[in-house]
Amino acid sequence: MFVVNSIFPKAERAPVTIRLFVNGLLALALLTYAAVGITDVERQARTPIVVMLSLDGFRHDYLEQYPQQGKNLRRMANSGLQVAGLIPGFPSSTFPSHYSIVTGLHPGKHGIIGNSFFDRSRDAIYRLGDRDAVEDGSWYGGEPLWVAAEKAGLRSASFFWVGSEADIQDIRPSYYKIYDGGVPNGVRVNQVLDWLALPWGERPNLVTLYFSLVDTAGHRYGPESKEVAQAIASADKQVGRLLDGLAKIQHPVYLLISSDHGMHEVDASQTIFLEEHIALDQWRGEHRIVPGGAYAFFYSADDSLVARTREALAAVSGLAVIDPQNFDALLNFPQRGSRIPNLVAVADAPKYIGFKRGQDRKPPRGAHGYLPQNTPTMKGIFYASGPRIPTQTRLAAIENVHIYPLVLDLLNIENQSAIDGDPSVLVPYLRD
What we know:
Strand order of the largest sheet: 1-8-7-9-2-10-19-3-20
Number of domains: 2
Number of strands: 21
Structural class: alpha/beta
Distance between the termini: 34 Å
């Protein structure tokens, strides 16, 4: 039995007859897939359950900074493995980082190189708010964990995760939700526990879950604010409910809690306005600037325009200007590709990149996206607990791509694709 959301998140968006017709087609497509990826009930029953929870924007030091607000998180971290920091790739942003965790690939290889970016071959921009793009599997490279699980005869479920709504390799999780940030975190936890109460054959072995409230508070009020403390307390309460629910399951269960990036306080007075340094009117039409707050991507086939822009921006204090020949070493980007910019500019925290003074919206109080190797506050968290994970295991900071081979090992799935994640980083810490 496949349970999915309608492709119309709100019923009133289309007439009933159209919704029934389209959902009928969707059901037919899912049944067609089921004939290819048939659930192996016996394998399901002997495979552990892995639950992956993402706490968006949860900085690596928040538990130390707000000790009274994260008691359940601390309890969970102490029951297993904890790293000193989870290092995102570049950019240290939500979409690329989340997708790196579930593919084991740096953004330059899986293709989601930002929350927004331009693809020359499509002559189109991918934006996190564009539902057509977000749900189109052809934008996404690599093999997400839920695709690997479904191929292996297991079921997977996702209550939000980047890529989980898309038909990647023509496969989606058995159960998934269309993103709606208004759904309370308690409802999300309830659904996960309901999924895990299903009988084998329907129960997922892999579940992804996502909370955004800590990130939202960090952007609006800054990482040192009382609102962030309140958001951590709220998230921690639901983590406690999740821990209690998982403890009642009569089956080996692993809980992995990570975050996509950290957060840095922004000094709005240090905003770098591009119009004060380059001729913005030349960057129109086929010449594009895709902003990312802490960084900006420049796309142009005009080598002269790119050279002039590079020279002008290189003179700006607190702004790193990176050429394609340095992409691999600094960004883990290839030098060329349909989505790879001709130039990348990255601000030094706490600076921020804007377009025009007096016309831009005021920068957020907190931001991410900065070069992770230069900005320790970009590090997130990673905690893992379960039967094979020794308590009080403490490790140095690791890159987020190394989570992927750990999850495959826990699910007893052999990796079938080239990845950046290295099994030797985390897998040796598992008990036999």
